[in-house]
Amino acid sequence: MNHSTAPLLPIAICLMTGIAIARWWMPGFPLPIVLLATIVVALATYRWPGVQSISIYVCCMMLGMTLMQLRHDVSDDEFLNRELEAVVMSEPAERPKTIGVDLLVPKAGGRTLRCYLWKDERSGKIRLGDELVVRAEASRQGSATLFFIYRNDWHPGGKALNDLSRWQRLRLWFLKQRHKLLEHYQDFNAEADTYAVLAAMTLGDKSAQTQELRETYAVSGAAHVLAISGLHVGIVYMLITFFMFGRRRFWLSQVLTVAAIWAFALLTGLSPSVTRAATMISIYAVFSARGGKASGVNVLCFAAIVILVTDVRSLFDVGFQLSFASVLAILAFMPQLQGLYQPQNILLRWTWNLGLLSVCAQLGVAPLITYYFGRISIYFLLSNFLVIPAATLILYGSLISLLFPPASIVVIHIVKAMNGGLRIIASLPGASIEGLHPTPLQVALIYVFILLCYLIFRKLISFFRSSINMHDRRWLSPRG
């Protein structure tokens, strides 16, 4: 992975750097004018490729800062002490004292706020798609802002539904379809934890998860399965391609596949990790339809650029960071490790590749996990050998159960077995190391160290391969 094979990587990094700088330091002068000046410089230095490359990188950094300055949403402070007309865009999540909902405020640039209403008889009747008029108080928790709404600070009503854009109406329609599927899941009469895992893994709904269940999955290193991500989208993609038309109608099959993937993304709530996976699959489908082959890192970086240009706030979403860090680590390390050893036996090859995948992904996200959650799971490899096959069976089984309800019994037993296995892993001695609180600078230095290890490792692999090739040529030469 270098500049020649992944030219979009430095561009994506510069864009992220510009957004991050503007998050903490916003200059008083108009950035669009500076951006325009850097574009002119980049165009004028075409005779000096090195200077032009630097100009392009500065351009991308200025673009990130400009997007932060020109973003359409209002600041969090402007939501306070004023009435807001909003639409409920999530399943209400019941907590001991509050009920958590996502409220979309159309007149604030379509901003979605995570709000917690005081739990009582009135708030218990709130449903997806309801219109509310609220007055919120904000609380800062890390990089996120949470909004609290007390008993007398909200009431049903307003005209927020009339102010929704077509895109927001489409999202709401898909979320209502998800609600119908969740009601179908409730007909399975499964235990609370079983239903919570099934709803989270297949439809992206986390409202039924308890603190104990989340803790079990976090300690065992399987928390990523409870959030719809590239793993789930990849499984769905394989299922869709299996039923497509094949090479004779390749264009049509790719169009239908991309449409189905984005429908699944909308159905599951369009989280940053799902958006990243859906964007990558869309780009891959376009290149496949044209008969080309795209670099995995380039596709990942292009997806990052598209998402960040669309919504710069995505960079500060924990799911976005974990998703891109894990995929980038897989794309960087896994081909190198696979080149060292590849078993011939199918079962051994599957085990080896799954182990490599888990280790590479964990290497990419471990610094972020310690920063945000203060722990690192020790038995993540053992957990992945359990949850990844189980996730595949659960996703396929859930689809079958929608068409053939008696199949739900099998799905429920698989979820129960997975929950039981993870509880055992979480109870093992030393299942996780707690109390880790690295600073942002320490996290950055850890990633620099990982990058240096990757560069050294790649050089060593290249050296050993060239040495083996030279030895083989000498052995096969007539003089040898």
Can you give a write-up of this model?
With 480 residues, the chain is α+β, with helices and mostly antiparallel strands. 61% of the residues lie in helices and 10% in strands. The protein has 15 helices and ten strands. It has helices at residues 8-24, 31-44, 49-70, 166-186, 192-203, 211-220, 230-242, 250-267, 272-289, 296-310, 318-340, 346-373, 380-403, 408-426, 440-476; strands spanning 84-88, 93-94, 98-105, 111-118, 131-134, 137-141, 144-149, 154-156, 375-377, 432-434. The strands form two sheets. Strands 1, 2, 3, 4, 5, 6, 7 and 8 form an eight-stranded mixed β-sheet that branches. The protein has a two-stranded antiparallel sheet with strand order 9-10. A hairpin with a 2-residue loop joins strand 6 (137-141) and strand 7 (144-149). The two termini are 36 Å apart. The relative contact order is 0.08.
**Count of DSSP helices?**
15
Percent of residues in β-strands: 5-15%
What's the story with the biggest beta sheet? 8 strands, mixed
Which radius of gyration do the C-alpha atoms yield?
25 Å
Query: Could you tell me the mean pLDDT?
Result: 84
Kindly state the number of beta strands. 10
Uncertain runs: none
**Helix/strand-derived class?**
alpha+beta
SSE pattern: HHHEEEEEEEEHHHHHHHHHEHHEH
**Span between termini:** 36 Å
Helix content estimate: 55-70%
Topology:
Elements: H1 8-24, H2 31-44, H3 49-70, E1 84-88, E2 93-94, E3 98-105, E4 111-118, E5 131-134, E6 137-141, E7 144-149, E8 154-156, H4 166-186, H5 192-203, H6 211-220, H7 230-242, H8 250-267, H9 272-289, H10 296-310, H11 318-340, H12 346-373, E9 375-377, H13 380-403, H14 408-426, E10 432-434, H15 440-476
Parallel strand pairs: 4-7
Antiparallel strand pairs: 1-3, 1-5, 2-3, 3-4, 5-8, 6-7, 9-10
Helix pairs in contact: 1-3, 1-10, 2-3, 4-5, 5-14, 6-14, 7-8, 7-9, 7-13, 8-9, 9-10, 10-11, 11-12, 11-15, 12-13, 12-15, 13-14
